[in-house]
């Protein structure tokens, strides 16, 4: 294992709040963190607004050890996110675990949780790079294909940088784990029902010129899993 | 439209924090809230721990106007959830929206956000009913098929009740919305790449007796969307 990845320690260093109780499901490698982040299409951003948590879905991107989220300058969650700590979580649901007891029913999943003080991105180059990362994460190939942002569009967009220094990764995979007495009784079926994400056929915008061809970065996009 | 659903007003009554800024995407009917909640396999629960937000994925269930989440009695998020306000969010990602400008790229999704003070479920019957709702939400048919919880298992499980009185629902669907100048330029493809969730073939546990048949509640489970 390398000592460093993107200048960060390759091993995640848990703090109390990023320590996972069921340690068998914890992953301690930074590479696993990046894998889970990169595989997820959206994240859930948690901020504190008037003393209460607010959790909203958001697109995101990653450059090295930093995750970026963006939105309108008017977005409540982004304004709150610069004042108080944030939490960004991504979850990939891989399947459902049917056990012999309802108690041991579970889900197979990969999740990553970041704890950070978000930073408002003000440097013009970092802002442009981070927006490219967000667009390329959600729709690879679109940054080069579509029209680039104007100065006005950039001014209407807020970007937050979220550090990945304090993070945890949790993975459950494999079959149900049942009690021996339930294995012996053998009265129920048990196993995993895998869940996959698949693209449907692209739906071209009705306002495209006749004969418009769907580009390869859309038609050949690999399924997310 | 009915006046009441499950004894709650059929119209969602927005508070400042449950008011959606882009009102064209807001849904104000309680029925839409339940539809989105019922269609989602997992939720993200936001709690406050030591003054910082913590967002974790969780399974959940609904009975009438109440959403239930459960976990180990040792779970940090559930202990924190009874002391301070919580936020429970579900998101269904329906597709990616490729626009003619990167600025108008977007996602088609349905999301629901609940704001509440969670209540620890202590009544034995409500606890059992809520666990049944959680199991039947994640794996319909399992409550009757698998072994029911023992008193010891129930004692090891914490259930929180989350009220749906303060909630918002947001839906984006349809094609990209581009600027007229980009429509005129017609230099980029635009459209929607739909995203679907599909079950893979069930993977029976290797410890099942030979000849075990996969039950109908697993083989005939409809795809989640």
Structure overview:
Two copies of one chain form a homodimer. With 225 residues, chain A is an alpha+beta fold. Chain A is built from seven helices and 14 strands. In chain A, the strands form three sheets. In chain A, strands 3, 4, 5, 8, 9, 12 and 13 form a seven-stranded antiparallel sheet that branches. The radius of gyration of chain A is 21 Å and the shape is globular. The two termini of chain A are 26 Å apart. The mean pLDDT of chain A is 94. Chains A and B meet through strand 4, strand 5, strand 8, strand 9 and helix 3 of A and strand 4, strand 5, strand 8, strand 9 and helix 3 of B. Strand 13 of chain A pairs antiparallel with strand 13 of chain B.
Gist?
By secondary structure, chain A is of the alpha+beta class. In chain A, 22% of the residues lie in helices and 36% in strands. In chain A, strands 3, 4, 5, 8, 9, 12 and 13 form a 7-stranded antiparallel β-sheet that branches. A 4-stranded antiparallel β-sheet of chain A has the order 6-7-11-10. In chain A, strands 1-2 form a two-stranded antiparallel ribbon.
**Helix content class of chain A:** 10-25%
Number of strands of chain A: 14
* Morphology call of chain A: globular
Poorly predicted residue ranges of chain A: none
Largest sheet composition of chain A: 7 strands, antiparallel
N-to-C SSE series of chain A? Answer: EEEHEEEEHEEEHHHEEHEEH
Oligomer category: homodimer
Greatest contact between two chains:
A-B, 96 and 96 residues
